[in-house]
Structure formats: structure tokens, C-alpha cells
């Protein structure tokens, strides 16, 4: 799963061939001629350092804040998470279910609140991650260590293999979705409004919280926590846990990541059956994203949920699993 890129590509949609590689080697992200040295992107280092310092300062403001402000910050965290898990990940990256226009609009807005690259860029990079997991073509290759797979991959230019393999992906489905293209076109202003302005203004206008507390708690702290929870799927869920479905791959089942990432920590299952809309064998258990998608189906806003069958799961466990449950 992805994180924000301060130098992502933007602009109007072009052909599938042009856009499939756009941004993968954007300004400040090209590897050197040999593709070996990791050139530091100092702008990202500075911005992420300032963001995390701001989040640490935000902790000091919690005792001063009104309870409603803390509840609002948590609500924004949940919306942020759904924009990534139910939206960019399960819907647009894997096409594991279908969503009608009102739901796609909501998920696109929630994805802008997440500020982890636009849907097109997030989904394209995630497809590269799945197809070339734990290789140099993986944007956050866990074989390069915990720090790199967690946040370090944002601090260096992308490996040339990420760029080359990414250009070969089929992204025509993303190009054909007007919601994806609209969000991409207006991504910067949507991020300002959804990630920073809306979370800050609501507590100030409705229940009289100070702008200072609102900004640091509902925007900065919430945003920083949501980023790190997402990054744990790239790092911890690729290093710690069991592998009941496929012991030959790195991704693992990690209960703590599951709790923080609202259902995305069943990672050995997900990489074994990436088409499954629940990203887990266990359906609704510890999986708020699945609850949300099922509720949207009940409302008639989502359809065609894809699932791995029980026989398929058991056969895969017997063939490649590590024997754990």
C-alpha cells in the first residue's frame, strides 16, 4: 500500500501507454543510469520530518481538546482509511467488487482526505507491488528492510525496475473511470479541502473548538497516524506473522496491523487471493472494510463481490501453507 508522494505527476489524462508510466519516474524520482544508487529526495525527508514533529506536538494538545474534537478526529481517520482500503485498494486496484457512481464519488473524496497519491497513481503502483512483490520492481520492496518498506521508499528515487515494469501494466480501466480522472485532475485542491480544511473547520464552526486544536488534532495527528497505519501493511505485514496460505511469499497474517488498518492485515491471504473483496478468509471478523462494503451492497450501491471459495482456500493451504491457522 502506498504513501504520499510530493512529486507525483499530474495533468490531463493521456493515452494508456503514456499514463501507465507517467509519474513513476517523475521529477526527483529517476534512478541513476545503473539503477543501483539510492538518491535521497531531500524535500520528502524534510516534509515528512516536519509532519511527524507536528504530530508529536499534537499529542500535547489532547488534554486541552473537547471530547467531540477527538471523536471527530477519529471519524476522519475512519473515512480516511476507507478511502484507501475500500476505495483505492479493493475497488480500484483489484476490482474485487463494483461500486455505483455515488459510492465511487464518496470513496474518491475519502481518498483525497487520505492524501496518499491520487487513485490512478496509487492503484498503478499497487498493481506493480503485487505483480513484482519483493523484487526491485516493488516500490516498497520489503527485502530492503523495515525502514525502507515503511517510509524510506518515499525518501529515495524509485528503482528503474519500478519504472520499466510499471509502464507495461494495463491501466485502461482506471483511465475509463471518470471519477478517477476527475479526482486526478483536481487532486491538489481536493487534498487541501478534504485532508486539511474540512477536518479543521468542522470542530471550529460547530462546537467552538479552537482552530489551533482542530488543525493539529483532526488534520496533522490524524493524517500522520493514518499514513503510518497504511505503511505498516507494507512493512510489518511483510515481515511479522504466519503464512497459512503460502509460505513461499513474504506477506503474512498480522493481527495488530489488521486492527489498525481496518481489515488489511490478513496479508498472506490477500497476496494469495488478491481478487477477494474481503481480503480475508474470515469475512466480517475484524474487518471493518468488509462491513462497509457489505453495507453498501445492502444499500444497493455496490455489487459483484468476488470471493475465493472454501474449497479453493483449503486446497491452497494444503499445497503451499505453513501449517498454521
From the structure above, extract its key features:
15 helices; 56% helix; two-stranded antiparallel sheet; 325 residues; mainly alpha; globular
Description:
By secondary structure, the protein is mainly α. The chain has one domain. It is 56% helix and 1% strand. The protein contains 15 helices and 2 strands. Strands 1-2 form a two-stranded antiparallel ribbon. Helix 3 (67-93) packs across helix 4 (101-114) and helix 10 crosses helix 11. The chain is globular, with a radius of gyration of 19 Å.
Please outline the helices and strands.
Blueprint: H1 16-21, H2 42-61, H3 67-93, E1 98-99, H4 101-114, H5 119-131, H6 146-150, H7 160-166, H8 172-175, H9 178-185, H10 187-206, H11 211-234, H12 255-260, H13 267-272, H14 288-299, E2 302-303, H15 310-320
- Estimate the strand proportion: under 5%
Q: In total, how many domains does the architecture comprise?
A: 1
Oligomeric description of these chains: single chain
Q: What distance separates the N and C termini? A: 24 Å
Short description:
InterPro entries: Acyl-CoA_DS, FA_desaturase_dom, FADS-1_CS. The chain is mostly helical and 325 residues long. Helix content is 56%, strand content 1%.
Amino acid at each position: 500500500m502506498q504513501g504520499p508522494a510530493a512529486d507525483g505527476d499530474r495533468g490531463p489524462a493521456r493515452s494508456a501507454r503514456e499514463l501507465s508510466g507517467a509519474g513513476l519516474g517523475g521529477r526527483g524520482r529517476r534512478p541513476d543510469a545503473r539503477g543501483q544508487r539510492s538518491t535521497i529526495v531531500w524535500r520528502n525527508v524534510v516534509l515528512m520530518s516536519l509532519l511527524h514533529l507536528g504530530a508529536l506536538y499534537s499529542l500535547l494538545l489532547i488534554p486541552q481538546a473537547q471530547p467531540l474534537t477527538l471523536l471527530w478526529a477519529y471519524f476522519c481517520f475512519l473515512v480516511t482509511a476507507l478511502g484507501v482500503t475500500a476505495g483505492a485498494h479493493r475497488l480500484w486496484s483489484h476490482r474485487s467488487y463494483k461500486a455505483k457512481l455515488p459510492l465511487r464519488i464518496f470513496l474518491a473524496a475519502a481518498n483525497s482526505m487520505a492524501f496518499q497519491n491520487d487513485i490512478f497513481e496509487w492503484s498503478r503502483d499497487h498493481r506493480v507491488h503485487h505483480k513484482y512483490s519483493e523484487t526491485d520492481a516493488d516500490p516498497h520492496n520489503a527485502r530492503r528492510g523495515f525502514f525502507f518498506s515503511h517510509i524510506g521508499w518515499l525518501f529515495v528515487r524509485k528503482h528503474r525496475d519500478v519504472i520499466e515494469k510499471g509502464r507495461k501494466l494495463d491501466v485502461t480501466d482506471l483511465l475509463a473511470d471518470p471519477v478517477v480522472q476527475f479526482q486526478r485532475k483536481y487532486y491538489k485542491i481536493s487534498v487541501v479541502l478534504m485532508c486539511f480544511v474540512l477536518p479543521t473547520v468542522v470542530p471550529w464552526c460547530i462546537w467552538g473548538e479552537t482552530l489551533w486544536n482542530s488543525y493539529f488534532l483532526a488534520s496533522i495527528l490524524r493524517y500522520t497516524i493514518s499514513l503510518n497505519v497504511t505503511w505498516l501493511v507494507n512493512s510489518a505485514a511483510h515481515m511479522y506473522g504466519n503464512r497459512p496460505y503460502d509460505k513461499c511469499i513474504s506477506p503474512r497474517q498480522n493481527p495488530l496491523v489488521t486492527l489498525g488498518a481496518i481489515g488489511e492485515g490478513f496479508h498472506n491471504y490477500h497476496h494469495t487471493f488478491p481478487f477477494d473483496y474481503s481480503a480475508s478468509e474470515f469475512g466480517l471478523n475484524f474487518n471493518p472494510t468488509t462491513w462497509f462494503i457489505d453495507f453498501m451492497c445492502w444499500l444497493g450501491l455496490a455489487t459483484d463481490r468476488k470471493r475465493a471459495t472454501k474449497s479453493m482456500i483449503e486446497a491452497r493451504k494444503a499445497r503451499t501453507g505453513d501449517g498454521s491457522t
